[in-house]
Amino acid sequence: MKRQVFLPLFLLVLFAGIQTVWGEEIRVGLEKNFKNRAEIAVEDTSFKLSAGSKEYDIALGSTLFKPFDKVYYDTGLKFDTYSEAEKARVRFTGSSCIPVLKNEGWGIYLNLGAKCDTSAMTKITTGGNCVVCSVNGVNRYLVDASYSARVRTADDRVDLGKGEYRGVIAFYRDNGGLTAINMIDAEKYLYGTVGMEMSPAWHIEALKAQSVAARTYAYAAHESHKHGVYDLCDTTHCQNYGGIAKEEPTVIQAVNATEGEKIYYEDELINAVYFSSSGGSTMECEDVWYEDIPYLSSVPDIFEKETDNWSETFTKEHIAAIVKQKGFDIGKIKDINCEYLENGRVKAIVITGEKGEAKIEKESVRTAFTAVGNMLNSVNFKLNKNEDGTYTLTGKGKGHGVGMSQYGAKGMAESGFSYLDILKHYYSGTQIHS
Ligand SMILES: [Zn+2]
After folding, report:
1. What residue ranges do the domains of the chain occupy?
2. How far, in Å, from the CA of 338 to the mean position of ligand 1?
């Protein structure tokens, strides 16, 4: 489930080569398997390669893309295709050289120490976006342009081994490594996302509600994603995205049935946060994230039939570790108490020590527990002080509790409500349209 980040809007770092016309295409950083790698393989034996507006058919076999920095002589020669550049290499017999795709088309770079007249050639250092493309262990060509190397295939599926993706894969160089960025139509991105955020076996109206929420989140998030070179990552930080492997017929049906529809509050895209289950009612946004957002108010979650019930026990040593991680110095732990909101959710945990008191509140009530394992499932819990000096938290629900409850949406759908009913219930006062 995605975590919400409230960051001020800031200018996206413009990255030449991964430009997009927003609204049609999303740039997804494939962080799960292809972030900052020494090499990334395109398993397809033929594909279309570009580093600018022109595209070239390459059919040399499965290809490894690797970051590449080296000093060469640029011969200044120009060719329309890779094959022409490859054929022209014979004129440098005896000297090592390599075809290169540049801004204006193909050329040839010559190794330093070449046994031919280089007096009219320019010495250049590759870098920036430069990658070397290697087939069967042999470096066959470079891509050294202002734009990143990009690959797509005729059947709209690029196979990167650990994942297969529709649209274009761009190879972005960062920190000496290579990160694959999937430039994909927004609707097709949702094909690979919705089923990872909600079970594809759930009621179609729930899947449609999830599709609209995920679409809204994706469109709104590009303004605040910290990475800059892409709009979203493929992890729970944004929304889970699994590419073609995670597409399911029910998900495609739900995405298609709601094509382009997004959620608005006063003509602005909303922050379409969602979570697994609430155990009775959703949370007021400001009780979790310090910010009052009118469409994220607490609403009853009465159709939620399945709720996570959970229980965890902690020792005073655990509590001490949490307090320390939070930067408090209150000495030996003496006692713990909870402050509750009107709806019974925990507003704050107050820990009393020999030297003072530590108060952990709002979203931190859940996240502080990562210091000793995982974050708490929810703030919908009761605290029990055990005779042996330990503390047991017994709770219901899973997730931050703000926005749409997914199990609640499932229950509403099964009770005959439409996806529009569901979305309007959880996102108060909103409108849904393309
Ligand atoms: Zn992210």
Report:
1. 26-185, 187-302+401-433, 309-396
2. 32
